[in-house]
Amino acid sequence: MNQVVLGNTGIVVNKNGFGALPIQRISKEEAAILLKKAYHSGITFFDTARFYTDSEEKIGYALSDKRSEIYIASKTMAIKVTEFWEQLKESLKQLNTDYIDIYQFHNPAFCPKPGDGTGLYEAILEAKDQGLIRHIGITNHRLPVAIEAAESGLYDTIQFPFSYLATHEEIQLVKLCQEKGIGFIAMKALSGGLITNSAAAYAYLDQFENVLPIWGVQKEKELDEFISYVDHPPILTEELKAVIEKDRMELGKDFCRGCGYCLPCPAQIDIPTSARMSLMIRRAPVSIYLNEDWKKKMKKIDDCILCNHCKNHCPYGLDTPKLLKENWVDYQKFM
Ligand code: SF4
Ligand code: SF4
Questions:
Q1: Which protein residue's CA is at the shortest distance from atom 3 of ligand 2?
Q2: pLDDT of residue 153
């Protein structure tokens, strides 16, 4: 069984974490089945957020009797100190616990620090002093913010998108975290659905000993795949290396990761999927996207008013309106 030591936190868990964003989309009982099954199969790290509607409540419901045997990471999007305390109090209530193992600032546009005028770092430190949280973390999609957090020495963990499609700079971030004793929690290890070979995804990440991938799980079939890696971790064979190489060639650098930080769109375009439709129709079963529902959704790209909200909010610096148009043209040709 592969274990990860999350930097200087002292947290040691199996190298398969449970990403609890998708359980928002299933019922409480269905979620409880997945969460309990994960726990009984050796998965003990659960990552959620106040922003993930009832995800915290479902974890509290399913696992509060196992509280001392699991680790819970949650997140706050607070931008004011009053919101910070309200959200932390609510998270503790929903999770049915009196402490959170890792409390993370959820994708802030800047790196909160003491004395920056927001009071947020002072508040999280106070929460730690009060024993309400055990470690301080930050999640981000912006590389400069993540690097600043790693260099600041203020964070015990950093959560950042990391997969075998990572750039050289992103790999350097992982190494910086390792040098500084910061636990690295990898979100989007399947790059928002673009990576379809989870064994290759796992085997690649396994080369980085401080990296803990959290797999977003919604279906039992998906969970079973990751559970099988608890006892039989995939090895980076020549065959899997070839899969990785092929994907890297096909996807390049400038592709939409489906993170959704560009929303809302005033023209109601489903940007996170539409902006990478060319990839999805070639990588996922075609029936999912070549149907009347998606034809209507893709046609909405014609309604774009070029407000550039999406472009200005994309952490990957994509020219989103242009990308959408290209995907729409390609989709029509593909049809
Ligand atoms: S530029 Fe177009 S796609 Fe982007 S947010 Fe504005 S209307 Fe939506
Ligand atoms: S366009 Fe950018 S912000 Fe929007 S979903 Fe894609 S990667 Fe994320």
A1: 314
A2: 96
